[in-house]
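Q: I'm writing up a methods section and want to include an example of the input and output format. Could you take the sequence below and give the corresponding predicted C-alpha cells, formatted cleanly so I can copy it straight into the document?
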Amino acid sequence: MANARPRTRIQERNRGTILEAALEVFSRHGFRGATLDQIAKAAGLSKPNLLYYFPSKEAIHVELLSGLMTNWLEPLEALNAEGDPIEEIIAYVLRKLDMARDLPRESRLFANEIVQGAPRILDQIEGPLKTLVDEKAQVIRSWSDQGHLASVDPYHLIFSIWATTQHYADFDVQVRGILAPEGDSHFADAARFLDHMFRATLTPH
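A: Here is the clean output for your methods example:
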C-alpha cells in the first residue's frame, strides 16, 4: 500500500481549527449533545468541508481524547521516586491544579467521557493509565513503609488529588459563582490550601 501523502499546511491548519472548535463544543455539550453542525459552525467551515477531514463526530472525539490522555499522564509520570516524597507529591498536586486552570475544557471533556462510562477510552484507562497509577502507587507505598510519609492508601491519595484539583475545572461555574474571583486569582488560594492540606496529611507523626 502506498504511503499516504503528507498533509499540506492548509490541511494541518484546518484540522487544528476543527479540533479546537470540537473541544469547545464537546466540553460544553458532551459527546451526545454535540453535533457536527455545531462543530462546523464553531470552526467556520461547511459541514462537507469538515467531513473531508474527519468522517464522523466520533472520529473527532477519539482524536481529542487520544491527545488528552497523553497530557493527562504527564504530571503523574513526572513524580520522581528519587525525590523528596512530600515535595514530589505536592508538586504533583500543583501540576494537576495548573492543568485545571490552563486546560479546563480538556478536563471537562475527560469528565464527560468518564460519566458516560468511558466507551472510547476504557482501554486506555485499564491499560496505560492503570499501569502508571500502579507504578506510582508502589512508589508512594514504599515511601510510607520507609517512614518518609504518613501511612496512606496510595490509590485513594491519588484519587483525592484528582478530585481536589480537577474540581476547579469541571465545576468552574460553581466555584466562580460562589467565590466571584478576579480572573483566576482563586487558583493561588487553592494552591496554598491544597499544599497545606496534603502536607499535613502526608507528614509522618
